[in-house]
Write a structure and sequence with these properties.
The complex is a heterodimer of chains A (271) and B (403).
Chain A lengths: L1 H14 L4 E7 L5 H10 L7 E5 L10 H12 L4 H14 L5 E5 L1 H7 L1 H11 L3 E4 L8 H9 L3 E2 L2 E2 L8 H5 L6 E4 L12 H15 L3 E4 L5 H8 L4 E4 L1 H12 L4 H17 L3
Parallel strand pairs in A: 1-2, 1-9, 2-3, 3-4, 4-5, 6-7, 7-8, 8-9
Chain B lengths: L15 E2 L2 E5 L5 H16 L1 H15 L5 E3 L1 H7 L3 E5 L10 H14 L4 E6 L3 H13 L3 E6 H6 L1 H9 L3 E5 L6 H14 L4 E4 L9 H9 L1 H14 L5 E6 L3 H7 L9 E9 L10 H4 L1 E5 L1 E6 L24 H9 L3 E6 H15 L5 H17 L4 E5 L8 H8 L4
Classes of the chains: A alpha/beta (271), B alpha/beta (403).
């Protein structure tokens, strides 16, 4: 019951009157071994949902931080299959923490939609966000994922108007990811006042928890977002922490964990 | 085959050419893509749109471009008569301006106030900078840092035309990375920005609208050929990078089944070396830059860097309609290496007094065989889609000459 893991995580956070913390890391960054250690450390420091990126050579919706993480991962030989192997390893010690993968369609097409969904379910992945598969193009993928009881998580954005929103949330399970700014990952800082209304509209239309991401870089920003959203996604900022710890020769997993702990504490006290 | 004699009906409402094409973009862009499609439909239904465009194509671009009988090249090969469709004589020196002129009118119809574009060799960048200067719109051109280096004359031309050229260091710093960066800009500035894509790739409706704007090449060719020879040609030949000049020539002839169609991809150092840009010949279907098409990619679906001496063909994908024409068998796709293109360039320079761009030099490299195959009494038309002035430094370098 993979979708169950995701629903449980959001339900638990709600029961504690707080937002869930969704943390993004790139598979294989800075190496497959260190990435495994990072993943292992996250559940203990208050990360409720892990979003694991799988690299693509041409990440057209990502900013410089995640682009560089993808290049590091590819240089390490990280593939979609190796990303799945990382999850398999993670699952041995963490049966409860939901984990979704995020990336671009071409590696998934190359593996084959059915093979992707089956293999993902086998290793304990709970769902996927495929950035360049909008509702108009994801019917086959959606069918394959439903057959394996995986959540397909879509992005809603400031450009998704009221007319389009029902189509965007149709067939979605787990949660909806609201991209708080029209832009690339890690772009400008967000204005929470602008997005409260949008989050409410997405929640209403989908009947699902809404996680907000793009541009949340600090515990303070996470706390502000946590007041209005069911989940707070932190990606580029965490990827930067990992990159800088790696470059300075520090304990990368510990640095990532410390940063996530500061985020989860801020979120816990936000409401 | 269902597709026969209904080639003009593609793409379908979802932007598909069979399994190819589509709209594989981030959600942020979807509303914009749909709005662009609507604006294009409206423009097509408005006669004044085409009338205005036609005036500018005539007086500013210099259309129609001549159809020229390449007599000495014909004698040299001893096969069918070879004609050149001389789109290299257009303002700015290539076919790219046909499309830019159409898209700038669309941008203005949509009330957009900022123009972005990607460029490889710089020809599309120059054409975009040109129309932006003419209509007073700010223009930002993304160009791979590697290409900025090797195409410095075109970078300076764009700057003279008032455009801002932004070098892209990401990835391999060539055309595909420039396109990624232009898409990132567009995602960030969706409200006021119009993205002028230079080739028949990208998300629907780009492959369709770029094709339609370039189809003036084929329409003129057909009319000129009927006037000159009183019949249709036996074969068409054009080079393929993304494939905009080729589809422009091919499309008005797709339903004329007697006309054979040949596209020529860049084989770089040779298909067998893996260092080439021949997506149709050496790739397989996948999804990149908003559409499903043939791509150079590895077993994990990662895109492999293309290689060609011609920066304009140096792209790991190809327009989705070409993928469709290949799979349905309507068109045949060949390839030519860097060396073959260089040789063809020199042959054309000496026999016809024309310096072709390195892109159509690839088509030239195969035109002799095609002319022989068609045979005496037959007619072959090749799209001479760009002039070679921009390439003289590259060619000098390849030939070991100092200039």
């Amino acid at each position: 019951m993979p979708v169950g893991r995701l629903s449980n995580a959001f339900a638990c956070a709600k029961a504690e009157n707080r937002a869930a913390l969704v943390a993004y890391v790139m598979a294989g960054d800075p190496s497959l071994e260190v990435c495994a250690a990072i993943l292992d450390a996250l559940p203990k420091v208050g990360v409720d949902v892990i979003e694991l990126g799988f690299p693509f050579t041409d990440p057209m919706a990502d900013g410089p931080s995640i682009q560089r993480a993808g290049i590091r991962a590819l240089k390490n030989g990280t593939t979609l299959r190796k990303t799945m192997a990382l999850v398999e390893q993670f699952r041995k010690n963490h049966p409860e923490t939901p984990l979704i993968v995020m990336g671009y369609l071409n590696p998934v097409e190359t593996m084959g939609y059915d093979a992707f969904a089956r293999h993902a379910a086998e290793v304990g992945i709970d769902g996927a966000i495929i950035v360049d598969a909008p509702p108009e193009e994801d019917a086959e993928l959606r069918a394959a994922m439903q057959a394996s009881d995986l959540a397909l998580i879509r992005l809603a954005t400031p450009t998704t108007d009221a007319k389009r929103l029902p189509a965007v949330v149709a067939g979605v399970s787990g949660f909806v990811y609201y991209v708080s700014v029209a832009g690339i990952t890690g772009d400008k800082a967000i204005e929470t006042a602008d997005i409260a209304e949008a989050v409410a509209a997405v929640r209403e239309a989908s009947g699902l928890p809404v996680a907000v991401g793009f541009g949340i870089k600090t515990p303070e920003a996470a706390a502000r977002t946590a007041k209005i959203a069911d989940g707070v996604v932190v990606g580029s900022a965490l990827v930067d922490v990992i990159a800088s710890a790696h470059e300075t020769g520090g304990d990368v997993a510990q640095a990532a964990a410390a940063f996530c702990q500061s985020l989860s504490q801020a979120i816990a006290q936000a409401r | 085959m269902d597709a026969r004699n209904s080639w003009g009906s593609y793409p379908d409402a979802q932007g598909r050419f069979g399994q190819f094409g589509g709209r594989f973009v981030a959600e942020t862009l979807m509303p914009n893509i749909l709005a662009l499609q609507q604006a294009y439909e409206d423009a097509k239904a408005d006669p004044s749109f085409q009338e205005t465009l036609d005036v500018f194509l005539r007086d500013y671009v210099g259309r129609p471009s001549p159809l020229y009988f390449a007599e000495r090249l014909t004698d040299h090969f001893g096969g069918a008569k070879i004609y050149f469709k001389r789109d290299e004589l257009n303002h700015t020196g290539a076919h790219k301006i046909n499309n830019c002129m159409g898209q700038i009118f669309l941008a203005m119809r949509m009330g957009k106030t900022r123009i972005i574009a990607e460029t490889g060799a710089g020809q599309h960048g120059v054409a975009t900078a040109t129309v932006c200067a003419r209509f007073g719109l700010p223009c930002i051109v993304y160009m791979g840092a590697t290409d900025v280096e090797r195409q410095s004359p075109n970078v300076f031309r764009m700057k003279l035309l008032g455009a801002e050229v932004r070098p892209v260091d990401a990835g391999t710093a060539t055309l595909k990375d420039a396109m990624n960066e232009a898409l990132r800009d567009w995602v960030t500035n969706v409200k006021d920005t119009f993205y002028i894509i230079g080739t028949v790739a990208g998300p629907h409706p780009y492959p369709q609208l770029v094709r339609d704007f370039q189809s003036v090449i084929g329409r003129e060719t057909k009319q000129q050929m009927l006037e000159r020879e009183g019949r249709l040609p036996d074969a068409l030949v054009a080079c393929i990078g993304g494939g905009s000049n080729a589809i422009g020539l091919f499309h008005p002839f797709l339903e004329d089944e007697s006309v054979k169609i040949y596209g020529v991809e860049a084989a770089g150092h040779g298909i067998e070396t893996g260092q080439h840009a021949a997506a149709l010949t050496g790739g397989r279907p996948g999804v990149l830059h908003g559409n499903r098409t043939y791509l150079l990619q590895n077993d994990d679906g990662q895109i492999i860097d293309a290689h060609s001496i011609s920066a304009g063909l140096d792209y790991p994908g190809v327009g989705p309609e070409h993928a469709f024409l290949k799979d349905t068998g309507r068109a045949t796709y060949l390839s030519a290496t860097d060396d073959e293109a260089l040789e063809a360039f020199q042959l054309c320079a000496r026999l016809e007094g024309i310096l072709p761009a390195l892109e159509p030099s690839h088509a030239l490299a195969r035109v002799g065989e095609i002319a022989k195959d068609v045979g005496k009494g037959g007619i072959v038309v090749m799209n001479l889609c760009g002039r070679g002035d921009k390439d003289i430094f590259t060619i000098a370098n390849a030939l070991g000459a100092k200039i």
